[in-house]
Every structure is written in structure tokens, then in C-alpha cells.
Amino acid sequence: MIRAKLDEIELGDLLRTLEAGRKNAVISITCPKLKGRIHIREGKIAYIQTHPGPHLGEYLVRFDYLTLEQVQELVKYQQQENPGTPLGLLALQQKMVTEEELNDVLHAQILEALATILAQQEGELIAETPPVDASQVLLPGVTDTSTILMEALRRLDEWMRGRVEPETVLQLAGDPTRYALSPDAWTVLEAIDGLKRARSVALECDLPEEQVYHLLYELKSRGILMEADVRPHDPLLMVLSDSNLIRRLLLVTLERHRYRVMLPPDLESAKRILEHHRLHGVLLEGADLPDKVRQLRALPGGRFLPIWLIAEQPPRGFWVRNARVTHIPKPFGEEDLLSALSVVKRPI
After folding, report:
1. Transmembrane ranges (predicted)?
2. What are the pLDDT digits (tens) for 35-53?
């Protein structure tokens, strides 16, 4: 086992050493604002998890390979029938995606997660041998560690040169056809409408979020984009969920439709947000929903706030009428979600 501070060991060197020895390992990283786990098989990166951070299921939706409903059904099947099978491999076995499509999303998710971890300067790293029953397996076409490490470092270097803030609203200022632009830059430009915030634009693209912020910075620096004269007031929603996947799916779907989303990690954080922000609604998912509703309703800002409960079955009991909550069936689709939220008045 290796335990060290991030300023005492170079993560890139450790990954190259594991690759050279074709080792199996799990590297756990704990930082002030992020936790991550890198799963190494035979020296290659099989998967990376970051919290907060993107989920593989989210990328399957962002790449339009699966719908919101399909991803949720797949996770439910995984939990009930195949708890030891990685989500990507299960999607491949169920013929929901092709091998090429799975490699696309795995590469994108690993790249974003690795670059995010490499950007951390404070924290602790623990590298140890994976347990015997570890479920992460190598899929065909997985990129060599050294190759994806170089790509992540290059992306990180680009991102650190400049970025726009997530709340920035941009509009076209010049003729983009006069410039030699990368395919990724054109992808980002297609999402610009003078109304969406940068975060909404980023989550509409099948690119790492930080990469989109950097591309927007470059396009603005070259005079192709400029800040919009009028900034729309998008409704502010809070999502409190026990599932990282549900949080990320709601974030992507709502941001794409110009809702601002806050993702507290727990109920106490949610209560603090409610005390300091003027929310337009709260979406709840997970265990102990009656208690969570009761505690939010007890706060001055939560007395008349719209609250939606995301669950497989409608809530039952005397508390439901008094709590004034609305049920969104799970698995939820985009139309179901937007229809439920239509009661929120969008400021012009």
C-alpha cells in the first residue's frame, strides 16, 4: 500500500509505473472538494469515479446513446440482478450500446475525471491492491494509460490558460466561417443562442465541461463571441438525491433547458442553501422523503416552495396532503420532468 500527500507524489509517475508493471490497483484520492477512485487493471485505467463529477450513465445520455429511462432501468437491473457487473459492460451485454459507443463514453468520462483529479493540489492518495472480488474489468479498446494521461495533461494545460465562468451568457459577435476552427469549437458554437448560460451550453455538448468553458474563452478572445447584452433570469432549482447518477441526470436535463441547478451533498447542506437562496423549487429522491420534506417545510423559505418527489410509487399517507408535494414517477423521462416543472414561472 502507498499512502502520501498529493504534493509528495506525482500521480502521473505512479500511473506510468503501474502501467509498466501491468499491475492491478485501486487509487483513492481525497481532496477538500473532491473524492476520486482510479481502478487499474493490468496497468490500464479501467474506470475512474469522482464525487462530485460525471457518471458513465450521464455520458451515455449526453452522447444520445441511451435515454434517461434506459439508463435508470439499466441501473435498476444492475442493482437487482448483476450487482458485480460494471454498468458499461452490462449495457454492452444487453446490446443497448455497441463496443465502439461504449469506448466513446468511457474515454470521455475517464478523460474528464482524470484531468479533474490531476488538477487537485491538496489532498491524500492511497494506492492498494484491489480486493479479490473487484468488479472492474478491462473492456476491448481501452486506451493505454500513458496515452490518456498525456491527453489529460494536455487538456488540463489548455483549461488553465483561460475559461469563462459557468454563469456567463454569450452571443455571436463575428463571422466564425472566417476562422479555422476545430470540430469541438464548431460543436460548442452550435449551442450558442444568446440565452443559455455557459454551463447549459457545456452540458448540451458531448465534451468535458471544463473543455467547453475553455473553448468559449478562446472563441470570445478571438472576437467570435461576446457577452450578451441581456442576461435571462433562469429559475433556480435544488436537487437532493441519494444517487450520484440521479443527481447528474437531473443536472444535465435541467441545465439543457435553462434551469439553474444546485446539488447539495446532504440534507443539512440543502437547508443552508434554502436559507440563503431564493429557490423556485426542490426535487427530492431517495430514502426518508417524508422527513426531508418536513424539515424543508419547517424553514421560512420552504413553506410554500414547490417540492417534487421522484420515486417509483406515489407517496402515501396523511402527510402527503399537508406537505403539498408532487410525484414524478421513476424512471423519469425528459418530457415527464419538464411537464412537472411547467408550474415554475420563468422570468422574462
Report:
1. none
2. 999 999 889 998 888 988 8
